[in-house]
Amino acid sequence: MEEEGATTVSSRVLAQRVGTTAAQVRKDLSLFGTFGTRGLGYEVRSLRERLREILGLAQEWPIALIGAGRIGSALFEYPNLRRRGFEIVTILDRDPRKIGRSWDGVRIRSIDEVGEVIERLRIKVALVAVPASEAQGVVDRLVGCGIRGILNLAPARLRVPDGVTVNEVDLALELEVISYALGARGTVPGEIRQDVTSDP
Amino acid sequence: MEEEGATTVSSRVLAQRVGTTAAQVRKDLSLFGTFGTRGLGYEVRSLRERLREILGLAQEWPIALIGAGRIGSALFEYPNLRRRGFEIVTILDRDPRKIGRSWDGVRIRSIDEVGEVIERLRIKVALVAVPASEAQGVVDRLVGCGIRGILNLAPARLRVPDGVTVNEVDLALELEVISYALGARGTVPGEIRQDVTSDP
DNA sequence: ATTTGTGAACATGTTCACAGCT
DNA sequence: AGCTGTGAACATGTTCACAAAT
Questions:
Q1: Whether the Cβ atoms of residue A156 and residue A132 lie closer than 8 Å to each other
Q2: Which of these, B77, B74, B71, B47, lies nearest to B153 by C-alpha position?
Q3: pLDDT tens, residue by residue, B57-82
Q4: Does B167 reach chain A within 8 Å, measured CB to CB?
Q5: Is A93 in contact with A107 (CB distance < 8 Å)?
Q6: Edge-first strand listing for the sheet containing B149-152
Q7: Which residues of B touch A61 (CB under 8 A)?
Q8: A174 near B CB under 8 A
Q9: Do B167 and A160 touch (CB under 8 A)?
């Protein structure tokens, strides 16, 4: 909206863009403080900036990519990560044939170097794209080296100590959700809503 | 559990495996019917079978992959989809250099053939892996041809008519969730819980 | 006139705790 | 004795509706 030249925006318009209600937007924002001006709405630039801070996105996040297979490669090339402030700064694998190669200037290192690299590059977050059977072992090493957040693409349920955040993305599971939604049950509660209800 | 030879399982054990509580498991199951035997628990094989039916997973789902780029390629090679009952049976792209090639015996076709292919192969679900700028256009065509479910990997908010299910996977967003969780706020409400609470 | 921020009302989701069955 | 299925109690999340601010 900033790029579109908008200087101010109401909860109603925000809600429309995002697929929720105006009241919801206001209540959600209110949990973090007071952002708007009554009668006017929210100042786009300052709202954006405050939200970036709340979400921890004011900084760039250096990311370790674990697994230089096909999925790892697709992730590495995925331009959206960088655009959104996440930069893959190291790639780790255990296959000797891959170690030593570079992707776009980023060297693929041995997983054994994980401790050294993570410390040197101050990495806190890792993208795990290894086979499911290796995922828990890799994650244990990562956590041991001080990684605090993990985005896991392997279809494996990971066990991590308190204080480490894991986010799982399982594409087969997402397809299963669609499968259920298409069942002979009509519209399913909990389905993604695309329609906007707004204040009366 | 079936492979492990278990013939019967309690809500408590199911809950542990899945990261929730025994009461939650029982309540959730009860919404779909009555599956267990008091005093004994659930019969593994029959529970599995009933759940497969409820989720619509008793059948194989033929899937159309839209976009033969890097992400599309990674998805196509991803063995887990097939293992979980989803088989990519056609690949559509608009790049003439890709059309006509085959991946592992599956021909890449022009997106213009979408209607014909979807009908012939009885495809109801598509995996959209095209650039964000093209996503809405592609989805409109898919919906026009009778696709009922879409798993969207492009970071674009899609508008679809009622009766079509869309599921969005946005990796940058998942990293943002981690970014927020790592903020100086301690443990965050809504975070994935790994600890199991069970009935007393 | 317009729009926020927020208690209060309402709705949905989770846990408790126990009767009822094996 | 052990475990399910489920109302009732409790907790969390959403919407309403309006006073306060510009």
A1: yes
A2: B71
A3: 999 999 999 999 999 999 999 999 99
A4: yes
A5: no
A6: B102-103, B106-110, B86-93, B61-66, B125-128, B149-152, B165-168
A7: 175, 179
A8: yes
A9: no
SS3 of chain A: helix, strand, coil, percent, to 5? 40, 20, 40
Mean pLDDT of chain A: 91
Smallest CA–C1' separation from A36: which nucleotide?
A: C4
DSSP code string of B48-108 = HHHHHHHTT-SS-EEEEEE--SHHHHHHHH-HHHHHTTEEEEEEEES-TTTTT-EETTEEE
Residue B122 structure tokens: 């009885």
Question: Which residues from A are below 8 Å from B71, CB to CB?
Answer: 74, 78
B131 in contact with chain A, both atoms CB, cutoff 8 A:
no
DSSP assignment, residue B177? H
Query: Could you check: is the Cβ of residue A10 within 7 Å of any atom of nucleic acid strand C?
Result: yes
Where are chain B's structural domains? 8-54, 61-174
DSSP structure class, residue A8: E
Contact A6, A39 (CB under 8 A): no
Shortest Cα–Cα distance, B30 to chain A (Å) = 16
Query: Would you call A128 exposed, middle or buried from its count of C-beta atoms within 10 A (0-12, 13-18, 19+)?
Result: buried
Q: Which of A99, A112, A150 is nearest to A128 (CA)?
A: A150
pLDDT digits (tens, 9 = 90+) for A30-79: 999 999 999 999 999 999 999 999 999 999 999 999 999 999 999 999 99
**Each residue's pLDDT tens digit, B160-175:** 999 999 999 999 999 9
What is the per-residue pLDDT for A183?
87
Fold assignment, B61-174: Rossmann fold (3.40.50)
